[in-house]
Amino acid sequence: MDLEARRERVDAKLCRATDQKMLKGSSLSALELLRQARQEAVELGSPWPELTAYRLAHLLLREGKELNEAEALFREAASLEALGPLPCIYRIAVCHRLGLDVERALREAHEALRLRPWRTNYRGAGIQSPAHNLLELAVYFTGATYSLEGLGSSGWEDLFGQTESWALVGPDPRTATVRYPRELALVELQSRGGPEVVRFEVRPSGRDGRWCFGEGDWTSVPHKVTLLLALLLQGRCQDNRELEQRLEAASPEALRTLKTELRRQLSRLAGVDPGRVLTPGRGVPRVLAPTAYGALPARFLGTPPANPDLT
Questions:
Q1: Which one, of 1, 3, 31, 2, lies nearest residue 17 by Cα?
Q2: Same domain for 200 and 148?
């Protein structure tokens, strides 16, 4: 199974396991799905191993077993800053029950809260209300028999609170099928980098985007140039008219100007011949070189295809 197919399956299993756990109260079914997702995620780059570790640790604690595994999973999840302080905080409860160094776990959680920049409307990895999180934490500390199933809400978008969905685009059009918060999109964008790879970000509200080549510095680039690159990588525009509409280009001439500008700026950024950047012709071109990955608000890409069959 290739990288993009595995990534789609891991995302679908995470979403389905969350739905079963929160709405249907079926922890055993969710646990099986999460173990499958975890096994596949270890072959992907960040954030997938850490995300599956976080969700699997919770399910293990809800089943009241495998405390050592849950502690190791929370520790791994805490390495992903985008998940916030909750993995560190929940790990304190597990360390307490295992008789491990709770003082050290407390210091690590305090450091996570002190160093990581939080917005007032950002909920990190919490899928539930603060009250539910506190009740959950109390149960984890005590090991009491108490059903936590059916609390909270479901859906991938809720994992980080009410935030706009983002997506990644790349040489394989399937890259654009996954939806997640901006924080996770930027983590995965970083993991897709390489010495000959362009990484870029399309920003909302028409602000200039940014890009870099290899390990070079990030530089600003016009919004519509980065959006054109993202749409070409997504590969869903059938003709120039559709491309004009998605870009809000005023005329065919404006679109031709944008294509020329993209070719020129990509050529200069990556040091490749301008004739090798895009396929020639008057139709919708394909990106030939360099290899590029970008992160952007998902609304620019439209509705993604359905999740893959997991059977």
A1: 31
A2: no
